[in-house]
Amino acid sequence: MRELLAPLTVPVHPIPGNHDDRDALREAFADHPGIAATDGFLQYAVDCDGVRVLMCDTLVPGSPAGSFGEERRAWLAGALDGTPTIIAMHHPPIPTGIAEFDTIGLPAADVAALGELLDGRDDVLRVAAGHIHRVITATVGGVTVTVAPSAWRQAVLDLGPEGRAVVADAEPPGYALHLLTDGGALVTHAAII
Ligand SMILES: [Fe+2]
After folding, report:
1. Which of 131, 134, 139, 151 is surrounded by the most beta carbons within 10 Å?
2. Is the pLDDT of residue 139 over 90?
3. How many A from CA of 51 to the centre of ligand 1?
4. If you measure from the C-alpha of residue 91 to the centroid of ligand 1, how many angstroms do you get, rounded to a whole number?
5. What DSSP string describes the chain?
6. 39 Cα: distance to centroid of ligand 1 (angstroms)
7. Residues 6+ apart with CB under 8 A from 3
8. pLDDT at residue 36, as a whole number
9. 104 CA to middle of ligand 1, Å?
10. How far is the CA of 108 from the centre of ligand 1 (A)?
11. CA of 113 to the centre of ligand 1 (A)
């Protein structure tokens, strides 16, 4: 991944997805100051031209499901400082309605607790996530959650009672581009490749 990302001219701030290994990620990005300073969960803050981006770790080693439990939430609560902030995490803190994805998401208790943490805050512009391989918009604690498309393959939209978490070639790859406008609003584009 590091080699693939090397041609990019923008800064890269990785966080683990459910298939990742924290030690391998730390080794590959050992020169990243945020990552180098982590111990245990791979969570760190980045200041990007007036916006604070809080990189969160939802990894549960060996499991496709995620977690954002008490210790991780305590870090987040301590990192929110009133600056306009984007929270990034792999697993989106929302139910998706795709049954199988919801079984490999975040525990409902973690989602509820994050919602309580964020409720009423005016410094959090967005929660940005991935994992589902589809563009989804929802809210947690009144904050907009954006799920980016997959840069590889999109998931089948299956909202039936046994909706499967499967990828297919019916839709092209893409990525999310978050633009902070002059007025301070965060606008998100789904860029289809
Ligand atoms: Fe994932």
Report:
1. 131
2. yes
3. 25
4. 7
5. -HHHHTT-SS-------TT--HHHHHHHTTT-HHHHT-BSB--EEEEETTEEEEE---B-TT-SSB---HHHHHHHHHH--SS-EEEE-SS-SS--S-HHHHHTS--HHHHHHHHHHHTT-SSEEEEEE-SSSS-EEEEETTEEEEEPPPSS-EEP---STT----EESSS--EEEEEEE-TTS-EEEEEEE-
6. 22
7. none
8. 96
9. 9
10. 17
11. 21
Instruction: Say what the pTM is.
Output: 0.97
Q: Which two tokens stand for residue 77?
A: 């609560």
pLDDT tens per residue, range 46-69? 999 889 999 999 999 999 999 999
Q: Ligand 1: distance of its center to the CA of 130 in Å? A: 7
Let me know the angle formed at the C-alpha of 85 by 18 and 140, rounded to the nearest 5 degrees.
60
Distance of CA 128 to the CA centre of its chain: 5
CA angle, residues 154, 156, 162, in degrees to nearest 5: 140
Q: Ligand 1 center to residue 132 CA distance, Å? A: 7
Could you please report the per-residue DSSP string of 28-76? HTTT-HHHHT-BSB--EEEEETTEEEEE---B-TT-SSB---HHHHHHH
